[in-house]
Each structure stands twice: as C-alpha cells, then as structure tokens.
Specification:
By secondary structure, this protein is mainly α. It has nine helices and no strands. It starts with a helix and ends with a helix.
C-alpha cells in the first residue's frame, strides 16, 4: 500500500472515529442538559459529563489531524486553501473542543460546590452554572461555523481536484451549507436543537459515505499524480 493510499485510509478512519465519539458525547450528556435542574443532575451523577468531556477530546483529536494528513496532497491543487483548511480545522476547531471539554468539567466542580454550599451561596452558584451552560451553547455555535467554513474549503478542493467522485463532493458542499445555516438559526433561536439535528443529518451521512469510500477505494490515482 503506497503512502497516498495509507493517507486516504487514515482520513476515512479518523472521520469515523471522530463522528462516533461526537455522537457518543451528545447521547451521554443530553439527559444532563435537558434536565430541569442541570446542576442537581450533575451533582447526583457527574460521570456522564466527565465521559462526555473525554469523548469530545476523542472526537477533536482525530478530526483535527485530518487536514494535517491531507495537506501534502491538497496543496498540489490549491496551497492557500489547503493551508487555510489546516488552520481552521486543525487549530481553531481544536480550541473549541478544548473549551467545550473544560466548560463541562467546570460544570462538574460548580455542581459539587452547589451540593454542599449553604443557602446564601446557592444563587451565585446557580447563576455561574447557567453561564457555563450558555457558554457551552455559544462554543457549540462557534464550532458549527468554523466546521462549516473548513468544510466548504475541503469540498471545494475535493471537487476541483477530483480526488474522490464529484457527486460526493457536491453532496458534501450542499450538506455543509445546510449545517452552516443551523448555526445562525440556533443563535437567533429560530429553530430548536431537534430541528437543527434533522437539518444536519445530510452532512453526517455524507461524511460516513466519504469515509467508507476513502477506506475502500482511496484517492483517484490520476488526480493524485496530476
């Protein structure tokens, strides 16, 4: 197996690992954030949030390595976009993943403090918990915007280079635009999380199809050597 084939397989594998970890983090933490009193829920059982933070980091690491692996190939077709892709997905996304994990771990500390603090301290701790939860939502919205921008870069380069079939790139381009719209729809509270999740399903399936294609078929040899 040559180097380009190994890169394609690793990229596909990293997409699957990152997506699986991301879905796992949502499933584990959703009952916490949807509770009427999240701090009390976390104080009663903080493990879901701890596991969720770990899964977020497990999602971030492989996904932010994707542009580093792709850079030697993509730069042959568009060096500026390839470098921008490294900056956005390799650096800015990782900052968001770290911020989200830290925010969740701070929530654990605040919830534990709220469980043992006196009545006088409760309003301040509840306010701090609410700020952390809203801050987490803001980080998620920023992450969605960054992810959408670096996705547009990636699918533009893949379409031009024909490293993978163009129908996959076109699907990705359309799906990432839909995902981009959900970030602003959530910011302005036009849709709820459930509706946003439905709108984001096309990019979820597209990335899994692309990942399987890269593992099974690799890059188009003619496009790589062009």
């Amino acid at each position: 197996m040559n180097t380009n084939r190994k890169i394609a397989s690793l990229v596909g594998l990293f997409f699957i690992i990152g997506t699986a970890a991301g879905v796992g983090s949502v499933l584990v933490t959703q009952p916490v954030f949807s509770a009427s009193d999240p701090l009390a829920q976390i104080a009663a059982n903080a493990n879901p949030l701890r596991i969720g933070a770990l899964l977020v980091l497990m999602m971030g690491l492989p996904l932010t390595l994707v542009p580093v692996l792709l850079y030697p190939i993509l730069k042959r077709h568009d060096e500026i976009l390839a470098l921008a892709y490294v900056v956005f997905r390799g650096a800015l996304e990782m900052v968001c993943y770290l911020a989200m994990a830290i925010c969740w771990l701070f929530l654990v500390l605040v919830s534990q403090e709220a469980a043992t603090a006196g009545a006088a301290s409760q309003p301040a701790l509840q306010s701090l918990g609410a700020v952390l939860i809203k801050g987490n939502n803001s980080i998620a919205n920023v992450l969605a915007i960054i992810f959408s921008l670096d996705g547009l870069m990636l699918y533009t380069m893949l379409y031009r280079s024909q490293l993978i079939p163009r129908w996959i790139s076109i699907w990705g381009f359309i799906a990432i635009l839909l995902h981009f719209s959900t970030a602003f729809l959530l910011i302005f509270q036009i849709v709820n999380d459930d509706t946003a999740s439905l709108i984001n399903m096309p990019i979820f399936f597209q990335e899994m199809v692309m990942a399987v294609w890269l593992i099974a078929k690799g890059f188009n040899p003619k496009a790589v050597t062009q």
